Amino acid sequence: MSVCREVITLQLGHYSNYVGTHWWNLQDASLSYDPEEKPGEIQSDVVFREGQTQGGHVTYTPRLIAVDLKGNAFYFSAAGVFNLGVRTPFGVARHWEEILMVPFLCSGSLSMDTVNSRLQRVQHSYRLEGSVKVWSDFLRIHLHPRTISIIHQYNHDGEAHRLEAFSQGESLLQGAVLDELEDKLHFFVEECDYLQGFQVLCDMADGFAGFGSKVTEMLQDSYSGRGILTWGTAPVSYADSTPVKDIYHLLNCTLATVHMANNSSFFCPLTLRGGLGRRPSSPVSFPHLSYDPSLWFHSSSVLALALDALTVSYRLRDNSVPMWQLADTLAVSGRKVVAAYGAVPFPMMHGSSLPDTLSSWTDAPPWKPLSACSEMSDGRCYGQWATLRGYGDQSLISALPPGTPPTTILHSLPSGEDVLGSYIRSFYPTSPLALQLLATPSKLTPPYPQIFSPQVDAQVSSVPVLTSLQSNPALQSWLSELHRSTSTLDIRRVAPSFLSQGLESSDYDEALEQLRVLARCYRDDSGGVMRSSSEEEDD
Predict the structure, then answer these.
(1) C-beta of residue 473 within 8 angstroms of C-beta of residue 524
(2) CB 300 within 8 A of CB 22
(3) 368, 369, 372, 352: which is closest to 360 by C-alpha?
(4) What whole-number distance in Å separates Cα of residue 480 and Cα of residue 502?
């Protein structure tokens, strides 16, 4: 019998809670309450805790601590569980529970085909793009009473009392805020039998960057030996952005990268921005997605779907890879920043095989950057962890009639692992590579947005996803550009209030030096492409 190695999740900041809410909705959609059903590939108890409602029914709540600012719409019952009032496009307050209970309410008098048809119509009639204001508007699960932490010192919106600077967030983790967080952590930790670690989602462009840096430092000090996988999130854009706020965002991202990488097993930025600088290139586009980059509800759903595959290795029922092993595979020789890439969705159409799909992508892998870090085209990579999730009943190998010569090398291989491994190695011939293939897809249920192109399926309920976590030389350019963009700023002139919030000039200068040293860890002296002038100057 497999051992359940528990994980505690922390979501720090508003956009991180957007991503986390979609991620938890995906997890909830895959839960089974039927004791007779065969256990699936994913072990839900890794991230969920089992409990009972007041009526004695089995329920699952996330092993989660979610931190946000006052001004968000939270609704709690007397028992402390989450009740969600959704603002629908029709202006009527409804509960997602009413939608999800349709099969149980109707099954006594209607056939399941009719029930499913009604549920599908409900799903496609709810378009929340115009009504979602905060992440609690589309959370479809119950939360434990100890999950939510509200920081009352700062406002979610408005002009006054905003959590905008790194040092503001750093100074928050003391007094009552620290006591409350430690109390919640101890509660969830004490329930665990085999705690493997923490997955931390943290906003990296506002003051939560400083808060998350202190939280990961506390986790490192208090739970030495546990995995700490930190995902730094950033939206594509902010509705209230100004030139000065853009500078703040850049400075916060820079300091977040340095400090959270120091305090974590690894640190991975997650964003669909074209870069973390003040003038990024166009947002990431995907061939089979029609999403609005300006809508947090949309961009966070794409990142959450990718994150569902990126985190699957330590949530498996069988052959699970613990957090620390995943980190040790990638974060070698001080290279604790990793980059994520994803094909969301993976373009494996109905009736095609894995060799058919991959052989049509000969110039480059089908994935796109999820960390604002483009891949290098010369095949250099220090380590890679690739996951294909959701191939379902599609064929992983080519079913050729006897005597038929294979169309490509991929069509001649005997297993899906061989096919995917051979394909990736054709681009990274000398890179260490770890692979995982799962048949089970991420189930897309309401209120996941309808962002898939008609070529996928107008009635899509699940999609395959291919992701890659990499430690590669491209991160040197990425980190060096972050260092160059920040170090050329005279923040005493262009953003004096950033220092006045409590950040010491010496600490700022030290962080920039640490960033420069971190970038050098990714330098490949074995040859390859010539380094840019900015990278030479950083040396």
Answers:
(1) yes
(2) yes
(3) 352
(4) 26
Q: CA distances (Å), 443 to each of 40, 102, 274, 308, 390, in order?
A: 13, 18, 28, 10, 9
pLDDT digits (tens, 9 = 90+) for 428-484: 998 999 999 999 989 998 899 989 887 665 456 888 999 999 999 999 999 999 999
Buried-exposed string 166-188: b where 16+ CB fall within 10 A, e elsewhere:
bbbbbbbbeeebeebbeebbeeb
User: Any residues with CB less than 8 A from the CB of 354 and at least 6 apart, and which?
Assistant: 348, 388, 391, 394, 395, 396, 397, 410, 416, 419, 420
CB-facing half-sphere around the CA of 357: CA atoms within 13 A: 26
**Token code pair at residue 184:** 């919640």
CB atoms within 10 A of CB 337: 28
Helix (H) or strand (E) holding 431: none
Give me 32's structure tokens. Answer: 């089974």
Helix ranges (H only) for 474-504 are: 474-487, 491-494, 496-500
- Spell out the SS3 assignment of 99-140: HHCHHHHHCCCCCHHHHHHHHHHHHHHCCCCCCCCCHHHHCC
Give the closest residue to 386 by CA, choosing from 325, 286, 312. 312
Cα–Cα distances in angstroms (integers) from residue 71 to residues 14, 19, 151, 389, in the given order: 11, 19, 10, 37
Q: Which residues fall within 8 angstroms of residue 105, CB to CB, at 6 or more apart?
A: none
Number of C-beta neighbours around residue 406 at 10 A: 12
Which tens digits make up the pLDDT trace of 34-82? 777 888 899 999 999 987 777 777 788 999 999 999 876 454 433 334 4
Cβ pair 125, 7 in contact under 8 A: no
Dihedral sign for Cα 198, 381, 487, 283, please. negative
The answer to whether the CB of 230 falls within 8 A of the CB of 267 is yes
DSSP conformation class of 46: G
DSSP code, position 406: P
Q: Which helix (H) or strand (E) holds 436?
A: strand 433-438
Q: Please answer whether residues 418 and 375 qualify as being in contact, where contact means their C-beta atoms are separated by less than 8 angstroms.
A: no
Of the CA atoms within 13 Å of residue 419, those in its CB half-sphere come to 22
Task: Give the dihedral sign, CA 15/16/17/23.
Answer: positive
Look up the pTM and report it: 0.90
Cis before 447? omega within 30? yes
Rounded distance between C-alpha atoms, residue 221 and residue 462, angstroms: 40
